[in-house]
Specification:
Blueprint lengths: L4 H6 L21 H14 L8
Length: 53
């Protein structure tokens, strides 16, 4: 099932600021599910290679 543009915009926190974002060549805006997944990685799983017990 696809999402409407409004649903996608609602998932991207930066788009709620009203700021016009023009630098998509340098990075891309992240939707909340991606932010949550990355946050989970860094808070629960991230570790240096070879130093994990």
């Amino acid at each position: 099932m696809s999402k409407s543009p409004e649903e996608v915009r609602a998932e991207v926190p930066f788009l709620r600021t009203g700021v016009t974002y023009l630098d998509s060549a340098a990075t891309s805006l992240k939707p909340l599910p991606v932010i949550d997944a990355v946050r989970g990685y860094f808070t629960e799983l991230g570790a240096n290679v070879g130093r994990v017990m």
